Protein backbone atom coordinates (compact mmCIF):
# COMPACT_ATOMS: atom_id res chain seq x y z
CA UNK A 1 0.00 0.00 0.00
CA UNK A 2 1.01 3.61 -0.45
CA UNK A 3 1.17 4.23 3.30
CA UNK A 4 4.23 1.97 3.57
CA UNK A 5 6.17 4.33 1.36
CA UNK A 6 6.57 7.25 3.71
CA UNK A 7 9.60 9.08 2.48
CA UNK A 8 11.15 12.44 3.12
CA UNK A 9 8.89 15.04 4.68
CA UNK A 10 9.61 18.57 5.74
CA UNK A 11 10.81 19.05 9.33
CA UNK A 12 8.18 19.70 11.98
CA UNK A 13 7.76 23.23 13.31
CA UNK A 14 8.54 23.96 16.98
CA UNK A 15 5.98 22.46 19.37
CA UNK A 16 4.90 19.65 17.01
CA UNK A 17 5.34 15.92 17.49
CA UNK A 18 4.93 12.91 15.21
CA UNK A 19 3.27 9.73 16.52
CA UNK A 20 1.73 6.51 15.19
CA UNK A 21 -1.81 5.38 15.96
CA UNK A 22 -1.66 2.20 18.08
CA UNK A 23 -4.59 0.56 16.26
CA UNK A 24 -4.04 1.49 12.60
CA UNK A 25 -0.33 2.33 12.63
CA UNK A 26 -1.11 5.48 10.68
CA UNK A 27 1.01 8.55 11.44
CA UNK A 28 -0.57 11.58 13.06
CA UNK A 29 0.80 14.88 14.29
CA UNK A 30 0.29 16.65 17.62
CA UNK A 31 0.45 20.42 17.95
CA UNK A 32 1.38 20.98 21.60
CA UNK A 33 0.95 24.74 21.15
CA UNK A 34 -2.79 24.49 20.44
CA UNK A 35 -3.31 20.95 21.84
CA UNK A 36 -4.77 19.64 18.59
CA UNK A 37 -4.00 16.66 16.37
CA UNK A 38 -4.06 16.15 12.63
CA UNK A 39 -3.40 13.34 10.14
CA UNK A 40 -1.71 15.78 7.77
CA UNK A 41 1.85 16.98 8.13
CA UNK A 42 1.78 20.63 9.29
CA UNK A 43 4.33 21.73 6.70
CA UNK A 44 3.51 20.76 3.14
CA UNK A 45 6.35 19.21 1.22
CA UNK A 46 8.27 21.30 -1.25
CA UNK A 47 7.20 20.65 -4.85
CA UNK A 48 10.69 19.42 -5.79
CA UNK A 49 11.37 17.53 -2.56
CA UNK A 50 12.58 14.38 -4.34
CA UNK A 51 15.67 16.23 -5.55
CA UNK A 52 16.75 16.70 -1.92
CA UNK A 53 16.35 13.01 -1.04
CA UNK A 54 19.10 10.49 -0.65
CA UNK A 55 18.84 7.37 -2.79
CA UNK A 56 17.52 5.32 0.14
CA UNK A 57 14.87 7.96 0.98
CA UNK A 58 13.81 8.06 -2.65
CA UNK A 59 13.63 4.27 -2.82
CA UNK A 60 11.56 4.09 0.39
CA UNK A 61 9.15 6.76 -0.84
CA UNK A 62 8.61 5.13 -4.23
CA UNK A 63 6.25 2.26 -4.99
CA UNK A 64 8.70 -0.06 -6.71
CA UNK A 65 6.37 -2.38 -8.62
CA UNK A 66 5.22 0.20 -11.24
CA UNK A 67 8.77 1.50 -11.65
CA UNK A 68 10.02 -2.07 -12.07
CA UNK A 69 7.36 -2.81 -14.69
CA UNK A 70 8.23 0.36 -16.60
CA UNK A 71 11.92 -0.57 -16.48
CA UNK A 72 11.12 -4.04 -17.85
CA UNK A 73 9.04 -2.47 -20.63
CA UNK A 74 11.91 -0.11 -21.42
CA UNK A 75 14.37 -3.02 -21.60
CA UNK A 76 12.12 -4.89 -24.00
CA UNK A 77 10.91 -2.01 -26.17
CA UNK A 78 13.93 0.25 -25.97
CA UNK A 79 14.14 3.99 -25.68
CA UNK A 80 12.19 5.78 -28.42
CA UNK A 81 14.57 8.76 -28.38
CA UNK A 82 17.64 6.55 -28.80
CA UNK A 83 15.90 4.74 -31.63
CA UNK A 84 14.95 7.97 -33.39
CA UNK A 85 18.34 9.66 -33.06
CA UNK A 86 20.73 6.73 -33.40
CA UNK A 87 18.68 4.06 -35.13
CA UNK A 88 19.19 1.63 -32.27
CA UNK A 89 17.93 1.07 -28.75
CA UNK A 90 19.36 2.70 -25.63
CA UNK A 91 22.56 1.35 -24.16
CA UNK A 92 23.55 0.72 -20.57
CA UNK A 93 20.01 0.05 -19.47
CA UNK A 94 21.13 -2.22 -16.61
CA UNK A 95 21.03 0.89 -14.38
CA UNK A 96 17.25 0.54 -14.41
CA UNK A 97 17.57 -2.61 -12.30
CA UNK A 98 18.41 -0.61 -9.15
CA UNK A 99 14.66 -0.37 -8.50
CA UNK A 100 14.11 -4.08 -9.09
CA UNK A 101 14.08 -6.38 -6.08
CA UNK A 102 14.98 -9.30 -8.35
CA UNK A 103 17.18 -7.29 -10.70
CA UNK A 104 19.68 -10.11 -11.10
CA UNK A 105 17.43 -11.99 -13.52
CA UNK A 106 17.46 -9.01 -15.88
CA UNK A 107 21.18 -8.33 -15.51
CA UNK A 108 22.13 -10.97 -18.08
CA UNK A 109 19.38 -9.80 -20.45
CA UNK A 110 20.59 -6.20 -20.13
CA UNK A 111 24.22 -7.19 -20.68
CA UNK A 112 23.34 -9.22 -23.79
CA UNK A 113 21.14 -6.38 -25.06
CA UNK A 114 24.00 -3.89 -24.57
CA UNK A 115 26.41 -6.10 -26.55
CA UNK A 116 23.86 -6.37 -29.37
CA UNK A 117 23.29 -2.61 -29.39
CA UNK A 118 27.04 -1.91 -29.31
CA UNK A 119 27.58 -4.10 -32.37
CA UNK A 120 24.64 -2.48 -34.19
CA UNK A 121 25.97 1.01 -33.48
CA UNK A 122 29.53 0.15 -34.51
CA UNK A 123 28.23 -1.27 -37.78
CA UNK A 124 26.08 1.80 -38.40
CA UNK A 125 28.96 4.12 -37.50
CA UNK A 126 31.35 2.32 -39.84
CA UNK A 127 29.03 1.67 -42.78
CA UNK A 128 25.95 3.88 -42.73
CA UNK A 129 27.52 7.00 -41.25
CA UNK A 130 30.59 6.78 -43.50
CA UNK A 131 28.28 6.72 -46.51
CA UNK A 132 26.46 9.79 -45.21
CA UNK A 133 29.81 11.48 -44.57
CA UNK A 134 30.88 10.82 -48.17
CA UNK A 135 27.60 12.25 -49.45
CA UNK A 136 28.06 15.38 -47.35
CA UNK A 137 31.67 15.83 -48.49
CA UNK A 138 30.66 15.42 -52.13
CA UNK A 139 27.80 17.90 -51.70
CA UNK A 140 30.16 20.44 -50.13
CA UNK A 141 32.84 19.78 -52.74
CA UNK A 142 35.33 18.53 -50.16
CA UNK A 143 37.95 15.87 -50.98
CA UNK A 144 36.54 15.34 -54.47
CA UNK A 145 39.85 13.78 -55.54
CA UNK A 146 39.10 10.94 -53.12
CA UNK A 147 35.45 10.38 -54.01
CA UNK A 148 35.60 11.15 -57.74
CA UNK A 149 39.18 10.45 -58.87
CA UNK A 150 38.42 10.99 -62.58
CA UNK A 151 37.11 14.53 -62.09
CA UNK A 152 39.36 17.48 -62.84
CA UNK A 153 40.33 19.41 -59.77
CA UNK A 154 40.21 22.68 -61.68
CA UNK A 155 36.79 24.23 -62.21
CA UNK A 156 35.49 24.43 -65.74
CA UNK A 157 35.85 27.77 -67.39
CA UNK A 158 32.48 29.03 -68.58
CA UNK A 159 32.82 31.14 -71.66
CA UNK A 160 30.58 34.04 -72.42
CA UNK A 161 28.94 34.19 -75.84
CA UNK A 162 31.50 36.65 -77.26
CA UNK A 163 34.46 34.64 -75.98
CA UNK A 164 33.12 31.49 -77.62
CA UNK A 165 32.73 33.26 -80.96
CA UNK A 166 36.28 34.59 -80.80
CA UNK A 167 37.64 31.17 -79.91
CA UNK A 168 35.67 29.63 -82.78
CA UNK A 169 37.12 32.10 -85.34
CA UNK A 170 40.67 31.27 -84.34
Automatic annotation (TrEMBL):
InterPro entries: WW_dom, WW_dom_sf. Transmembrane segments: none annotated. Pfam families: WW. PROSITE patterns: WW_DOMAIN_1, WW_DOMAIN_2. CDD domains: WW. Residues 10-44 form the WW domain. It comes from Opuntia streptacantha. SMART domains: WW. SUPFAM superfamilies: WW domain (SSF51045). This is WW domain-containing protein. Coiled coil: none annotated. PANTHER family: PHOSPHOINOSITIDE PHOSPHATASE SAC9-RELATED, SAC DOMAIN-CONTAINING PROTEIN.
Amino acid sequence: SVENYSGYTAPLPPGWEKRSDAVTGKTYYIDHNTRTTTWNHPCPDKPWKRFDMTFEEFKRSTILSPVSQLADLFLVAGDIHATLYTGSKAMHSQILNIFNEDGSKFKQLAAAQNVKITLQRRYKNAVVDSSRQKQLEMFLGLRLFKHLPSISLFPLHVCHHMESLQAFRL
